[in-house]
Amino acid sequence: MKNLILGLLFKSNNLMNMKAIICVLMTISILCQASCKKEVVEKPPPPPPDTPKYQSKMDIKWLELYTQDTSGAYFLDPYFWGDHVVFCTDMPIYKNLFPTMMAFHKIHGTKHPLWNDQTKDLSQGYTDYFPDWKLFGSNNHLAVHCAKNRLFGWNLNTGNLEWMINHAPLYGLAEFSKVFGDPYHSVTTANDTQTRLIKIDPETGATQIIVSLNAGSNEGISILPPSGWVSPTHDTVLVFLVQGFRNVTQGFVNAYAYCPTKNKFLWKIELTTPHGITTMNAPLVIRDRVVFITAAGLFCVDIPTGTIKWQHTFPNPLKGFNYKPLYVNGRIYQRSGEDVMALDAYSGTILWEYNDKINNLEGGSMAYYKGNLYFTAEDGYDPYYARYLFCLDGATGKLIWKDKGPHEYSGMAFGVIVDPATGYLYATDAFRMMCIDLNNSPKP
User: Fold this and answer.
1) Which are the contacts of 373, defined by CB distance < 8 A and separation ≥ 6?
2) Fewer CB within 10 Å: C terminus or N terminus of the chain?
3) Is residue 379 within 8 Å of 412, Cβ to Cβ?
4) Which CATH number fits domain 323-444: 2.120.10.90, 2.40.10.480, 3.40.50.450, 2.30.22.10?
């Protein structure tokens, strides 16, 4: 560096030549900066060791991605179809995918050749939202999907669309129910002044109007999904709720029993629900009683007489009992947005409640196996509020174990189903469909 500076000075004819001095000074500055940078630069520190990954303790027998690019979806409750379990998506998270079905062998998880990917658009291009679906037929081989104004009937054995119903200009309810092996769906006029309950042949899609109700002056009404009961005289009886409104703040909910064979209403009950808030769940029929599930509480009614046997109402309707109940061995298991409870089906006595920082979010079906209750919910103790599969003692409500599944961040979600013959539980975490052996879960 010294020789370079002297050389530059020598080349200038005049030491007072400003250009030469400026050139020398700039050269010194650049070289010094480069030298300094070279001296302070060090090798980057070695990367920290990998943090321990979350390890599920569930015995997962098989696991399949919804899509190979790991795109997720919102799933509806799974169902059994012969030796297969069928998963159905409600609305894909990404718009380039469609609502679809995928079927897997229950034991080894082999994909069914007709239902093995997410490319078959069940909506046929008419909609991208499926609120509800159910299986029908002697072997559950007929899948009926509800898209509000449209219903689709798919044959699982052939992979073909057998029929489609378009209710327009009427509006279909978001959910429907299965009564005596047939789909029942409610439709209303555009202004909600008339509502009809329609019975559908799952084989052909043929429809039949069963009940038609007209709203009162300045009212709007809608029949909600029904359930069925057979009387001692072998008459069929439909039990259902009718939700209505008179203005923005004043609503009402009425319970009905209707006998189609006699074309006669057996009774009507006005239920006490704040602002007329209710749910779209079909009532739960237990022998000669029916339990109506509303957003504000539960009402148990004797079907032959229309007498309310017991009821539980709650001051906060936003607690929301908008989830399907489960009946097992004289107990009703019911979940809300904040807790899970068990009730004695005959007396209505609340046996226990579990509300330890859980949020049910999407909800979905619960399952029962060997005395334990299984469901998915958001866990408030998790730093990411991930969703877990919970296992509670069905008799006491005590937490036995919980697990957020094979992925650290997505967690378990939506409905579950158990095969009582094997103890295999089928579930999803919105990205993967899986089979879990409850007999060996959790693993040590």
Assistant:
1) 326, 333, 340, 342, 366, 367, 391, 392, 393, 394
2) C
3) no
4) 2.40.10.480
Extents of the domains making up the chain = 1-28, 323-444
In this prediction, residues 291-302 reach a mean pLDDT of 88
pLDDT band per the 50, 70, 90 thresholds, residue 440: very high
Residue bearing tokens 């042949």: 201
Gap between the Cα atoms of 77 and 132, Å rounded: 9
Q: Of the candidates 170, 174, 180, which has an alpha carbon nearest to the alpha carbon of residue 200?
A: 180
In this prediction the pTM is 0.84
Residue reference for tokens 């079905």 = 101
pLDDT in tens, 309-328: 999 877 665 555 667 899 99
Q: What distance in Å separates the CA atoms of residue 434 and residue 66, rounded to the nearest whole number?
A: 10
The answer to whether 25 and 9 are in contact (CB under 8 A) is: no
- Mean pLDDT for the chain? 83
pLDDT of amino acid 365: 93
State the pLDDT at residue 273: 62
